[in-house]
Amino acid sequence: MKRVIELSINGNSYDVVISPEDLLIDVLRQKLDLTGTKKGCGQGDCGTCTVLIDGRRTLACLTLAIACEGRQILTIEGMERQGALHHIQQAFIDKGAIQCGFCTPGMVMSAKALLDERPDPTEHEIKLGISGNLCRCTGYVKIVDAVREAAVRLQADAAAGKGA
Amino acid sequence: MSLPPFEYLAPTTTADLAGLLATHRDKCRVLAGGTDLVNWMAEKIYRPDYVIDLRKLPLSGIRYEPGRGLTIGAATTIEAIERSPEIRRFYLALAQAAGQIGSPQIRAMATIGGNCCNASPCADMPPPLVTLEARVVLTSTRGSRELAIEEFITGNRQTAIQPDEFLECVRVPDPWPHSACRYSPFGLRAAQEIDIASVAVNVAVDPATGAVSKARIAMGAVAPFAMRAPQAEAQLVGKKPTSDVIDEIAIQCGRECRPIDDLRASASYRRHIVGVLARRMLRDAVAAIA
User: Fold this and answer.
1) Cβ separation of B192 and A132 shorter than 8 Å?
2) Three-class SS of B164-191
3) Which residues of chain B are modeled with pLDDT < 70?
4) In chain A, what residues touch B53 (CB-CB under 8 Å)?
5) With CB atoms 3.0 to 4.6 Å apart as the test, which of B39, B50, B283, B286 could cross-link to B28 if both were Cys?
6) Which residues of A touch B8 (CB under 8 A)?
7) How confident is the model at residue B200, as a pLDDT?
């Protein structure tokens, strides 16, 4: 039975008409036109649909939209601030960590979750942090470089009192 | 890929949950993290009329009290188990198993209840739970009952849960004195892999004699459920855990498991790997006690 639910996404509130069986990934992409989040394998293996719900890494392809009521959803569209890319996004560009780009939104969200918890991760911790995200271009070396660079820039901002 | 239609229910009390299960029984499925259930609904393996979401229920949390042991709520995430300071300190094998499941995303979503109730032969949580003498609490409108994890998981994806029951929590007794537990899976890659085999051990050593006083060994992905190695356990108890003794016990574990040939590995390779893992885990556990 269709119903209206309220979703909080990137700080905005959306009233959405959904069925209980609608998946978050499809609601984001098809009903709300938030197509930055990609649908890859659709079964929780590839990580490209990763979003943050209440700060935790979550696979939008395995999440019922109706179960997200009352929770804070952050997608790749919510990373930039006033037209400026987030440090993680800019570091991916600067380090050449984007090839075909399909895994990038999920990689960025996994990096965000990692750096929120560990502002100064080791290379091993970065690899663990993105271990649920597959890059079929196999550009992992530059992705790890980019996360490392983003950590440095975020820490410099934090030291300068600018916050994230 | 879309899911078959269902009605969504999100009870806020366990009494309401029990009532819904008693009413809908086989027509409903319980949703915890969703990492298995949503896939199975997408594949039309399940077409429930009702999906009952546990997320508004007070079913998650980790509590450790010396003398009373550990209680883990059924909806506790695998990530919370992996990170729990109490579990890392007193029940390291559980944290080791949790840390090996899926990916960071899966661990943030999936729950210990789901890992036990779905009862995959290669699930990571059951082997250490078996070695730690864990028990599950099953609740319904008829009341609660407690079962040893070995009585709960009865076969490949089969458990003793009744259609009107839900898994409320997992209880683990206090660690044995002078003991250590360890767990390791083996797969072909470091993340998002399905185990070829896994081994959990829990060993206590008598400080006066230096001999093993208690031992439990459980093996995953080499039988329809996490199986113990009773002969290996019996051989180990009463002996000093020297390198030679551990080597013998490890080989015995490989003999006792009941693996199959499948696309991930041959049965004979699994037996070999069980021996390797058993040797490593027993050495680690014994070193940690000493």
Assistant:
1) yes
2) CCEEEEEEECCCCCCEEEEEEEECCCCC
3) 1
4) 64, 67
5) B50
6) 20, 64, 66-67
7) 98
Return the residue of B nearest to A128 by Cα: B104
- What domains can you pick out in chain B, each with its CATH number? 7-53 (3.30.43.10), 65-172 (3.30.465.10), 179-289 (3.30.390.50)
pLDDT in tens, B76-115: 999 999 999 999 999 999 999 999 999 999 999 999 999 9
B267-289 and B243-256 helices, crossing angle to 10°: 140
Greatest Cα pair distance in chain B: 63
Of the partner residues B8, B39, B79, the one whose CB lies closest to the CB of residue A43: B39
Q: Does domain A3-78 have CATH number 3.40.50.1820?
A: no
Q: List, for residues B18-64, the tens digit of each pLDDT value.
A: 999 999 999 999 999 999 999 999 999 999 999 999 999 999 999 99
Residue at A13: amino acid letter:
S
d(CA B10, CA A138): 41
Min distance B57 CA to chain A CA atoms (Å): 13
B197, containing H or E segment? strand B197-205
Domain chopping of chain A, boundaries: 3-78, 87-159
Helix/strand/coil for B139: strand
Q: Does residue A164 surpass a pLDDT of 60?
A: no
Rounded Cα gap, residues A68 and B263, in angstroms? 37
Q: Beta strand pairing status for B7-9 and B50-53?
A: parallel
Pick among B7, B82, B103 to test the A interface (most A CBs inside 10 A): B103
Please give, rounded to a whole number of angstroms, the shortest distance from the CA of A64 to a CA of chain B: 8
Tell me the per-residue pLDDT of A46-94, one tens digit each, with 9 for 90 and over: 999 999 999 999 999 999 999 999 999 999 999 998 899 999 999 999 9
Return the pLDDT at B188: 84
Taking CA atoms, B11 is separated from A85, A157, B31, in Å, by: 41, 44, 11
Residues pairing with A6 in the sheet: A15
Q: What does CATH list as the number for A87-159?
A: 1.10.150.120
The CA-based angle B83-B34-B94, given to 5 degrees, is: 30
Average pLDDT, chain B: 96
